[in-house]
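testing teh design pipeline on a random one, pls ignore if ur not involved
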């Protein structure tokens, strides 16, 4: 289990550890959907992955690769924006959004691999993508 999730929410970490795999995937998918919507990431691979997560289908290796490619692209974009902030060409808000988008995509990628560790990683990254603790909590409980 991701130590960061245990620190963020010990109760959620315990709950996640006690869940059967299908419930874990459902929870991760629900929270990832909020993260993607909250950050307005538009990528076909992420939309497809969210559909797979909701439907409880097994994702194809190709879908895993496509989501990973989106995540790499968004991570690189966040680094570029961070450089631009340091050069005075972008704002801290620009960087924060780029970072959150990369975390949302990473969360989806982790959620596709239905293990306890990957679900924990997905929720941890989704927490930072969502950025609003109350909204994250509501997503975790299904509101």
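output:
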């Amino acid at each position: 289990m991701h130590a960061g999730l245990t620190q963020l929410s010990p109760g959620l970490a315990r709950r996640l550890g006690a869940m059967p795999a299908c419930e874990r995937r459902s929870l991760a998918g629900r929270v990832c959907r909020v993260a993607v919507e909250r950050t307005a990431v538009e990528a076909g691979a992420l939309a497809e992955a969210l559909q797979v997560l909701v439907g409880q289908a097994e994702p194809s290796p190709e879908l895993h690769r496509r989501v990973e490619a989106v995540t790499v692209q968004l991570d690189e974009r966040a680094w570029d924006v961070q450089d631009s902030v340091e050069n005075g060409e972008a704002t801290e808000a620009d960087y924060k959004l780029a970072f959150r988008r990369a975390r949302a995509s990473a969360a989806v990628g982790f959620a596709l691999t239905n293990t306890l560790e990957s679900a924990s990683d997905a929720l941890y990254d989704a927490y930072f993508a969502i950025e609003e603790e109350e909204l994250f909590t509501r997503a975790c409980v299904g509101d």
